[in-house]
Amino acid sequence: MEAPDSNPLSSGRAFADLSSWRKIAVSGTEATPWLNGLVSADVGGLLPGKARRSLLLSPTGRVRAEFTVAARDEGLLLIQDPIQHRSIGELLAPYVLSADVGLEDRTTDIALFAFPGRSDAPAPGASSSISIPSCLGAGVDLLASAERRDQLMRTFGSSFDLATEEEVEGWRVSSGLPRFGVDALEDDLPQEAGLDGAVAFDKGCYLGQEAVAKVRNLGHPRRLVVRLASRERVRAGEAVLADGQQAGVVTSALADAGGSVLLARIVWDARDLPLRTASGGALDRAARPGQPSRPV
User: Fold this and answer.
1) CATH numeric code, 4-175
2) Burial of 21 (0-12, 13-18, 19+ CB in 10 A)
3) What residues form DSSP beta bridges with 75?
4) If DSSP states are collapsed to H, E and C, what string results for 180-246?
5) Cβ neighbours of residue 76 under 8 Å, at least 6 residues apart?
6) β partners of residue 226
7) Phi, psi of 170 (to 5 degrees)
8) With contact defined as beta carbons under 8 Å apart, do 275 and 242 qualify?
């Protein structure tokens, strides 16, 4: 993988074609309040052109799906990384019941392009719209009819590079963005998955709210997903040690000749202890890009 500062997505020189990501349209007169009563983010007042990362939780607060809710003139669109085993549309379908809500898989109908290193995107033109922030975290997404995908690829290609899958993954890891199914697992509470930013703790009821609030107000999670850095080359799957005992595992890593930035799952009790890899490399708490790391 490329170092964060050499990744063309970081500097806005590239775009990612995410047209294979799932896209579930939510329509109907009750669509917005219905969805807002189920998912963890507050999407009740989401305006067209805006997006919000969200989760679907089990009644006990475990993460079942992670996705982005994008508001469009046509209604809400749920954008989901296809690495997740179950479609958010499939998971939401049992809750429709008698509500005036429709769920439609639009994956093959809509093209999706991400510009995570930019605050704007090329003029969308007809049959297109923008969505901010990107489903890759920062930046902006462009949604267009699938019929225009090849044309837009050529247009964008004259001004931007097309990012490889490796560069997209490098952007994610350097940004410290946990990936559900890799860094975060179905047994996790949002706070254990590093996904608590996708939870509106002050909104009304939603699935799993009581369990999530209990952890936040009365206790602590069993484990954490943390962003770390090392001067050594680190690979996913390596054990993380604290006081000589295994305290976690590296789940994602971005390595180059200068060292590594990584995400790791560690137990709560190791959160303030010095951490090392099993091969002996010291691990530092990695600040957000552009800020210095600090020892743990």
Assistant:
1) 3.30.1360.120
2) buried
3) 72
4) ECCCECCCCCHHHHCCHHHCCCCCCCCCCHHHHHHHHHHCCCCEEEEEEEECCCCCCCCEEEECCEE
5) 25, 26, 27, 31, 32, 35, 43, 46, 69, 70
6) 264
7) -65, -40
8) yes
- CATH superfamily of the domain spanning 222-295: Aminomethyltransferase beta-barrel domains (2.40.30.110)
Domain spans of the chain?
4-175, 222-295
Residue 7's pLDDT is what? 87
CA distances (Å), origin 289, targets 45, 174, 177, 182, 293? 31, 7, 12, 21, 9
Q: Are 64 and 90 in contact (CB under 8 A)?
A: no
Q: Check residue 5 and give its pLDDT.
A: 55
Q: What is the dihedral of CA 234, 175, 178, 113, to 10 degrees?
A: -120
10-residue mean pLDDT series, the chain (296 residues): 67 95 97 97 96 97 97 96 97 94 97 94 79 95 95 93 95 95 95 95 92 87 95 95 96 89 96 92 70 38
Dihedral, CA of residue 162, residue 78, residue 68 and residue 153, to nearest 10: 10
Instruction: Tally the residues of the chain.
Output: 296
Category of 48 on φ-ψ map: left (φ > 0), alpha (ψ -120 to 50) or beta: beta
The whole-angstrom separation of Cα 158 and Cα 233 is: 35
Cα 131 to Cα 219: distance, rounded to the nearest angstrom:
36
Residue with tokens 């923008």: 130
Tracing tokens 């004259």 back to the chain, one arrives at: 158
CB burial string 145-161: b at 16+ within 10 A, e below = ebebbeebeeebeeebe
Please tell me the predicted confidence (pLDDT) of residue 286.
66
Q: What is the pLDDT of residue 123?
A: 75
Residue 155's pLDDT is 92
pLDDT at res. 1:
41
